[in-house]
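hey can u check if this looks right to u? its 149 residues, i copy pasted from the old doc so theres a chance i mangled smth
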Amino acid sequence: MTLDNLDIKILNILQENGRTKRSVIAEKVGLSLPSLSDRMKKLEDNGVIAGYYAKLNKKLFNYDIMAFISIIMDSSKNYPQLADNIKDTPEILECYSILGEGSHMLKALVKDTQSLEMLLSKIQSWPGVNRTVTSFVLSTIKESTKINL
């Protein structure tokens, strides 16, 4: 799908605030409400807009520890099982296949150190996992899902 300047404007508005009313977006980009709705539907249908979500305040739910966990595997033969285990573990927010030290980098969110210890024990018991390297997040300077269009 080829994006034009109007699509880019719409996407930038939605990246700033996904709850912006369609009537406001239509006015900002100079489209009628039906034309804007058609464009947004096409963007959604073509996978350009992958979803809408609410960003929650972690602290209000007593999630105090964010950690990045690097997984060192013995071989790639266990990657499919690893992927299934990761998908089934709600404490793991994100997973990236990486080059460098380890094969996968996990972003995990837990309530306390005891929960982190349990999560690490679980991960280290998965087939093919030799060891993990964990880094704690002390503070977050920037956290965004916005991409530069």
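The chain has two domains: 5-45, 58-136.
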